[in-house]
Amino acid sequence: MSFPDPKEFRLVVAATNDSGESDFLEVDGPAIIDMPGVADGAFYWAVEGGHSKENFGRPPARVELAGPNGSTFGVNSFPARSAGNTGDVDQFESMTSTGHDGDPAMHASDTIDYEVVISGKVDLELPGGKKRTLRPGDLLVMAGVPHAWKNPYDEDCVYIVVTIGFNHAQSGA
């Protein structure tokens, strides 16, 4: 089974139209991720500030992970032989470089991520030399921990990703 380029998936949105009827909505295109040799893909949908039937989201205007009480939905890839390549992860508001173990690719985010590998494979590294190779069909839940993605393999790794922004509880009360 082959999949389209992460930027060429078709987004279908079923929701209530302006007349209050169930309908398929026409929406803008995705926010494109273009970090040559590091990552490629698109975020197709985003919700900001809480989920409801009235606030179900829209295509994002720019690439960023989910903020508090928000979510994003996208298709991304790590290019073949991109192990060790790093990008500017600090460009994303919810993501920061951690540099754990002296690895500039180590970063963390204020999100819980649900990911499904659909083609290729990629190594997910955690601090302390912990590593798992993810393959097609593997499901990943990541809870904001420092990590690095490494693809030393000869095939791009394409995966579906949903990010959920942390709801930072306020102290007191």
Automatic annotation (TrEMBL):
Q: Which Pfam families match?
A: Cupin_2
Q: Where is the signal peptide?
A: none
Q: Kindly give the Gene3D superfamilies that the UniProt entry links to this protein.
A: Jelly Rolls (2.60.120.10)
InterPro entries membership: Cupin_2, OryJ/VirC-like, RmlC-like_jellyroll, RmlC_Cupin_sf
The record places domain Cupin type-2 at 104-162
PANTHER family under this entry?
A: CUPIN TYPE-2 DOMAIN-CONTAINING PROTEIN, SLR2101 PROTEIN
Q: Which protein is depicted? A: Cupin domain-containing protein
Q: What is the protein's species of origin?
A: Geodermatophilus sabuli
Q: What is the lineage of its organism?
A: Bacteria, Bacillati, Actinomycetota, Actinomycetes, Geodermatophilales
